[in-house]
Write a structure and sequence with these properties.
The protein has 128 residues and is mainly α. Helix content is 55%, strand content 6%. The protein has 7 helices and 2 strands, in the order H-H-H-E-E-H-H-H-H.
Length: 128
Amino acid sequence: MIPSPRARSAIDALGLISAARSGPVPLASVAAQLDLSTSYLEQIFAVLKQGGVVTSIRGPGGGYRLAAAPEAVPLSRVCALFQRGPEPTTGPHAAFWARLNRDVAGVVAERTLAEVMAGASTPAQRTI
């Protein structure tokens, strides 16, 4: 399972939200930091909320926060929410793609959101 572009955007946004210590984070802040549109993130966060990865608070001072500690959010759970279906297994290089998908799925299954945060290389990448 190679993470889709939406899954990668979700993981990036969740990394920023998990670093916020001041309460719920508005999507506009996340969108600005990731250089993504707010409407795109709204679509992603609707899926994350339905999947139980985030909770939301409406109104002034509202936004999103993680539903669990970053250590308890496996990346495989996030990626699965955005997986469209089985990867193609036909074609001249089917065996290669199948092996690559297995390898990536193994790595993703072993990682958590906390590890994404630990890998942020600059303070700006760690906070909103």
